[in-house]
Amino acid sequence: MTDQIREQLSALLDGELPRDEMDLLMRRLDKDPELRRTFGAYALIGESLRAPGGRIAPPSFAARVSAAIDESPAIVEKASNTRLASPASTARLPQHAALWKRPMVRTALAAGAAATAVLLFRPEATPVAQLEVTPANSFAMSASPTPAQSQRLAGYMVAHSQFSTPMVRRNVLSGLLAADPGITRVSYEMGEAP
Amino acid sequence: MSRPAMRRAAVCVAACLLAFSARADDDARAWIERMSESLATRNYDGLFTHSTGRQAETMRIVHRVEKGKSLERLVSLDGSGREIVRTREEVHAYLPDRRVVLVEPRGDDGSLLKSLPTPGPTLDRYYRLSVGQKGSRLLGREVRVIDVRPKDIYRYGYRLWLDEVTAMPLQSVVTNGLGDPIEVIRFTQLQMKDKIPSRDIEPTVDATGFQWVRTGRKMAAMPQLPSNGGWRPLRLPPGFRLVASRLQPIPGSPMPAQHLIFSDGIAAISVFIEPGAQTGPRPPETSNMGSANAYSTSVNGHVVTAIGEVPAATVREIANSVVPVQGSAMPADFPASSAR
User: Fold this and answer.
1) Those residues with Cβ within 8 angstroms of residue A50's Cβ, 6 or more apart along the chain or in another chain
2) CA B103/CA B90 separation, integer angstroms
């Protein structure tokens, strides 16, 4: 992959890519799985960089960020220097960028993948657009669904989405695209949701 | 000030506050209606991040209006490679990790907005609505922040950053009963276009050799329960009303599932009742995808599943209250004492 493509991906995420280049890049993204993976790594790092406010990330998220960093350190540098260029976070840019480049931080992040959760960076103040995200069912004990369970739920979710408002439908279908559902076999002795 | 004068002043203040509150509700409702209309009737192409407490994924949405129908492609750019395409007649969910395509007939046969749940005039009974001041910015655009806060524990809240000109949601946050975000969708790119090329709404997944599973068939969705009896929840959260019911064929089963849809104008809840497995009752299960929760349990040899963009406890309560009935008794509301 050329540096030019990397530049374009980064510019795309920053909203700085000219429209004609954007359309071409979108088409390339449609056709090239490797490019999509790279783009995903850029977006993931960018998202984690600007997800302060003490967000607790699950181990899988930390592992993916760590893997993305290991795959392409250049991405981190580029993402750090461009992704945080929004007015709300410009003041914190040097601090974040420096933190992500420190080996200690990368080691801590990788180590965190084995623990229950990783605390991402917390800024001095949380801008409006930066929010903590709480797991919807943090009390639930997850189990992997069987393929049949997963398919049945996916079918139900698609059918259900037909009767939602456009915004909620997009939310529901995005949740379906993101991952398989975690399924919990309920035991009422386990306790109720808080 | 004399006592009658003070009383008159108090009445005036109360009336002004009520009028202000009613206007805020109307304004918020108007913004929400504009948002729904824009999402359904404009051409756009955008990249957004979908974040939950578990993960963050980047996705692309392409939406095109063609001869009065909305066509759409939603694709995960960095994860499963899954893709959902809304064609003129059907919705296709490509799941390459399972080598399966789920096919569902579209529920909106009429005009673009005909079948959409809309925030009706009673919305403010169940949500506190407010509109932020002008002047906020996001993605370099002027936005208006709309807050939709539930008045009870049975539904979620929403915070919406709507583009001042187009009312498109540049960022939306779903919040739980404590006001904590549980799902964030944030656009990093959004282009409103005059035209969207056909190729941009066609699937990119090579589905050769995939199993095509039809999870439903086209039939009229009527807002009434089957006349020959059927199933229904005995209890529903206040404000949720039956908006559609239909029969849903199940692959490999001679008996269809009954599908009931309830809505409060913003959130929707589906209840599916299907003949159960011959192996006996299964333990209850809960699951969630994004901000949607599902709960399945066994009732009288059937599997009852409630799904909705509402808290897990709400779908559990509804599924556990489903019974087979004859006649037309309508469900009762959840106990008012549980409301906040």
Assistant:
1) A83, A84, A86, A89, A130
2) 7
Residue B223 burial (10 A CB sphere; 0-12, 13-18, 19+): exposed
- Contact between B314 and B239 under an 8 Å Cβ cutoff? The reply is no
What residue spans define the domains of chain A? Answer: 3-119, 147-190
**Residue A15 to residue B259, Cβ atoms within 8 A:** no
Which residues in chain A are contacts of B216 at CB distance < 8 A? 155, 159
Q: So what's the ipTM on this one?
A: 0.82
Hey, which bits of B81-164 come out as E strands? Answer: 83-86, 90-95, 100-105, 127-131, 136-138, 141-150, 157-163
pLDDT digits (tens, 9 = 90+) for A110-159: 333 332 222 222 222 333 334 455 555 433 334 556 777 777 888 888 88
Contact A132 B136 (CB under 8 A): no
Helix (H, G, I), strand (E, B) or coil at B136: strand
Q: Which of B102, B116, B283 sits opposite A158 (nearest CB)?
A: B102
State whether B162 and B271 are in the same domain: no
Range of the domain at B283: 219-338
Number of A–B residue contacts, CB under 8 Å: 286
CA gap A138, B316 in Å, rounded:
16
Identify which of B53, B58, B139 has the shortest CB distance to residue A133.
Answer: B53
User: pTM here?
Assistant: 0.71
Residue A83 predicted with pLDDT over 90: no
Last residue of a domain, one of B201, B231, B261: B201
